[in-house]
Write a structure and sequence with these properties.
Layout lengths: L32 H15 L9 H19 L1 H8 L2 H19 L1 H11 L7 H7 L1 H4 L6 H12 L3 H4 E4 L5 E2 L3 E8 L4 E7 L3 H15 L8 H6 L1 H15 L2 H17 L5 E2 L3 E6 L3 E5 L4 E2 L3 H6 L4 H19 L1 E3 L7 E3 L5 E3 L5 E3 L2 H15 L3 H11 L8 H7 L14 H17 L6 H20 L5 H24 L11 H7 L10 H26 L1
Length: about 550
């Protein structure tokens, strides 16, 4: 007897074994979601308003906790690292102390640490590794607190709603924790429950962060480029939206809809419950699978791990460039790989949303990279807000040497490489460059996907993968892309020289795996550390 697909697969990319069916029109908690989203975003300017004086005792508390962490590192690990010539020991010590300090300071700083933990390739590996512990190893709330929130928001005793509700959470993070449960109607679910005092704490911390951020502008070149007030603004927008689980459930349906519209069935979204969704409680379908780093288990199950990464990359790019909606917080803790090779994508508190001009800018950036048109890429970055509107793009190309010969960083002396980096940062700052908010989410997701290649497909040829994805977009969306940005990818050959330039290799290099790329990065890292160590010796 032929199997029948669930009816709701027409409205979203969900599992083939539904605990219930999704009918967006019948979900009362979804009513007014757009107005709620707008009202939530409207809170941010008030939270970030300029204050003449620091906002109360919280600033003092934060300063004391972080000061103890940095002071302890300075007296112990930093001295040991310098004495023994082990900078990695110093970094590990500082990372551990900061992680403990963030955990002590509570939800807002834990969330900040979680975001930093997704920056593999951007932040030191010791920091990324340590802050990963903040994803799901945060001390949980007491079961009594959880029960109180669930019963208050759902309007009934726990025992009237569930036949089973595990006292120990599956995971505990900054804003909420997740419990396994079984509904009275028999479905196995997970229940996301917000921490009781998190809303007040977050708002107090945001006020403190916004007071400090302007004083960091220009203090450190990298932070000046990132624009600390913009970082705080992004953080405020995402974390404030995360405080209302009705918006998260609505995000789930929107991402599922985009996946269905692109017929991307290799990624599935858990179904939110039709009724049991409130501001602080979210009941959803339970999905399970291999953890994202269980490569051995996936291979034993016959799963093509390279195809898993490719599906994630394509669905991410489709959502951002064609529909203006994408999951904004990809990391290993938010993914399961199921037995059939599909990816269960979890946690929709942070979702990137693009208006039409910014969606077109992202599409131009993608096309500019595909055909190696630096000016188109810079124009897209300008349209996204990364450069002032009156920027002379030809001058940027000239000053940054974008059109010049490729410089291989592995063949450069450490002093030369440092000078090159300093000069690029200086030139970007001179042009008023910054990283706009939505671009930060986009880059953070790309960094995760880069790390996913290292874990799941280290020997796949990167150039072949880029060509495959570009060909997929040209064949499937060529007509639409041509209408949107005036460039028909069906008539343009994929030009990988721009990608080679970004990797620091010449056009003669025809193949490069992520394992090769990691080896190059490790060589550069080791040379820089050796250079730093020898400089300290000379000073002595």
């Amino acid at each position: 007897m032929p199997s029948v697909s669930p009816a709701d697969l027409s409205v979203g990319a969900f599992s083939a074994s539904p605990p219930w069916l999704i009918d967006p029109a019948q979900m009362r908690w979804r009513a007014g979601a757009a107005a709620l989203r707008s009202a939530t975003a409207g809170q941010v300017p008030q939270l970030l308003r300029r204050r003449r004086l620091p906002p109360g005792r919280r600033v003092v508390r934060v300063g004391m906790v972080l000061g103890r962490a940095v002071g302890g590192w300075y007296l112990v690990e930093r001295r040991q690292g310098r004495r023994e010539g082990r900078p990695e020991h110093s970094r590990a010590g500082l990372s551990r102390r900061l992680r403990v300090a963030f955990q002590t300071l509570g939800p807002t700083y834990i969330k900040l640490g979680q975001i930093l933990s997704s920056g593999e390739g951007l932040f030191p590996p010791e920091l990324v590794s340590e802050f990963r512990l903040l994803r799901d190893r945060v001390p949980p709330e007491s079961f009594e607190s959880v029960r109180s929130v669930v019963e208050e928001d759902l309007g009934a005793p726990l025992e009237e709603l569930f036949t089973r509700f595990d006292r120990q959470p599956l995971a505990a993070a900054s804003i909420a924790q997740v419990h396994s449960a079984t509904l009275r109607s028999g479905e196995d679910v997970v229940v996301k429950v917000q921490r009781p005092a998190v809303s007040t704490t977050v708002r107090t911390d945001l006020a403190a962060m916004s007071w400090i951020a302007p004083y960091l502008i220009g203090r450190i070149p990298v932070s000046a480029l990132a624009n600390p007030p913009a970082l705080v603004e992004l953080f405020a927008e995402t974390i404030v939206e995360e405080l209302d689980f009705r918006l998260e459930a609505d995000n789930m349906l929107d991402v599922a809809r985009v996946l269905a519209a692109t017929d991307q069935r290799s990624v599935v979204v858990p179904r939110p419950h039709p009724k049991l969704v409130t501001r602080r409680v979210l009941v959803m379908e339970r999905l399970s699978g291999f953890s994202f780093d269980d490569v051995e288990g996936m291979h034993k199950a016959g799963i093509d791990t390279a195809a898993v990464v490719r599906a994630l990359m394509i669905s991410f790019l489709e959502g951002a460039t064609l529909f203006g909606v994408f999951h904004g917080d990809l990391h290993g803790g938010n993914l399961f790989v199921r037995e059939d090779g599909t990816v269960a994508l979890l946690d929709y508190g942070i979702t990137g949303r693009l208006d039409e001009p910014r969606r077109l800018a992202f599409l131009k950036m993608l096309m500019g990279g595909t055909i190696n048109d630096p000016k188109m890429q810079l124009a897209a970055l300008r349209d996204l807000g990364a450069l002032p509107l009156d920027t002379d793009l030809d001058a940027v190309i000239r000053d940054l040497g974008i059109a010049g010969p490729v410089k291989d960083p592995t063949a450069m002396a450490p002093e030369e490489l440092l000078a090159e980096i300093r000069e690029i940062i200086k030139q970007l700052l001179a042009y008023g460059a910054r990283i706009p908010k939505v671009l930060m989410l986009y880059v953070k997701d790309l960094l995760f996907l880069d790390g996913a290649l290292a874990t799941l497909a280290p020997d796949v040829d990167l150039f072949a993968e880029v060509t495959h994805i570009a060909t997929y977009f040209a064949e499937r969306y060529g007509e639409r892309i041509a209408a949107d940005v005036g460039v028909d990818p069906r008539q343009q050959a994929v030009d990988l020289d721009g990608m080679r330039a970004q990797l620091g290799v010449t056009s003669e290099v025809e193949h490069m795996s992520h394992r090769d790329l990691q080896a190059r990065r490790e060589l550069i890292r080791k040379r820089m550390e050796d250079h730093s160590r020898s400089k300290r010796r000379r000073k002595r």
